[in-house]
Amino acid sequence: HDLTGSWQDEVRRLARARDAVILAHNYQDPLIQDVADHVGDSLALSRIAAGTDASTIVFCGVHFMAETAKLLSPDKTVLIPTARAGCSLADTIDADQLRAWKSQHPDAVVVAYVNTSAAVKAEADICCTSSNAVEVVNSVPADRPILFLPDQFLGNHVRRQTGRDNIEVWMGECHVHAGITAAELRTQVAADPEAEVLVHPECGCASSAIWLAGVGDLPADRTHILSTAGMLDAARDMTAKTALVATEIGMLHQLRKVNQQTSFVPVNPKASCRFMKMTTPDLLLRCLREGRDEVQLPQDIVERARRSVERMVAIGK
Ligand code: 13P
Ligand code: SF4
User: Fold this and answer.
1) Atom number, ligand 2, closest to the C-alpha of residue 274
2) Closest ligand 1 atom to the C-alpha of 248?
């Protein structure tokens, strides 16, 4: 415990010396979450990155999140404890693939989930996160076709929520969320039929046939498909004894903080993102001491990528 305390003090001291704000995603290791200035989902952290007075942003998350912060605050120094922290979902599409897809649908509006590289964002019209995907898609005139990328499960969720049938969905997936299956969810619900159910829209189970048909054994009134920030809001007023949580397990830390009465149980306890967990206490120290890894973006894509992100951030303001 003492060691943790002195590590935290050192992190806070170094952050002050660098005039740095530390942002941590909800999937980071609990130690990292607890030392950060702000913990949140992709959208909340993007908004904080856009509005901060600090001259340096230390992004404890994965690379596309740090890139998004850089796009929104190009004059600030943006650091990530390791540039190796990628995202298997973002890797399912590159700029060449998107250009080829667009050329087959020249009239379409391209909506890109933030889980994409800056080069892909530069080819998109507007970005979205899991918090605002439905709002963003609703902001596109109903008669315009949409190319939604890269997550198929989020894309299907948006299609259902908006009732639009003119959305083409890229067949990408996140290896962590795709691995949280309908079979696992059903087993857990059967074992605890009174539980509330929180599901991230990237999950394989979010689009399962039983869910779509509505004839399965998922409790429709207690099943909530939400972003990580949405889960926290829902958890605050929860009175259920148990809530089953279908998302990356780092999320449990914040859920348990906001509600100590309900027991939060992971649907798949092995659903850990190895990229998120690359931010170790040692690497955070190295980052603050040595100013690495710094996020730099090629000038030719910055302007175009920023427009897509800014259009998203403007929605719901
Ligand atoms: P949220 O925007 O819901 O925090 O999700 C980010 C992410 O990487 C999901 O895997
Ligand atoms: Fe990417 Fe999945 Fe990890 Fe989120 S959980 S950062 S989508 S690999």
Assistant:
1) 3
2) 10
145: domain CATH number? 3.40.50.10800
Residue 1 — pLDDT band, cuts 50, 70, 90?
very low
Provide ipTM, 2 decimals.
Answer: 0.96
Question: Does residue 115's CB lie within 6 angstroms of at least one atom of ligand 1?
Answer: yes
Q: How confident is the model at residue 315 (pLDDT cuts 50, 70, 90)?
A: confident
Ligand 2 pocket, mutate which of 80, 154, 276 (most atoms under 8 A from CB): 276
The whole domain housing 71 covers 2-87+276-295
**The model's pTM:** 0.94
Domain membership of residue 302 (yes or no) is no
If one compares 103 and 191, the residue with the highest pLDDT of the two is 103
Lowest mean pLDDT among 56-60, 93-97, 112-116, 213-217: 213-217
- DSSP for the chain reads -HHHHHHHHHHHHHHHHHTEEEEEETTS-HHHHHHSSEEE-HHHHHHHHHH---SEEEEES-HHHHHHHHHH-TTSEEE-S-TT---TTGGG--HHHHHHHHHH-TTPEEEEESSS-HHHHHH-SEEE-TTTHHHHHHTS-TTS-EEEESBHHHHHHHHHHHT-S-EEE--B--HHHHTS-HHHHHHHHHH-TT-EEEE-TTSGGGG-HHHHHT-SSS-GGGEEE--HHHHHHHHHT---SEEEEES-TTHHHHHHHH-SSSEEEESSTT---TTGGG--HHHHHHHHHH--SBP---HHHHHHHHHHHHHHHHTT-
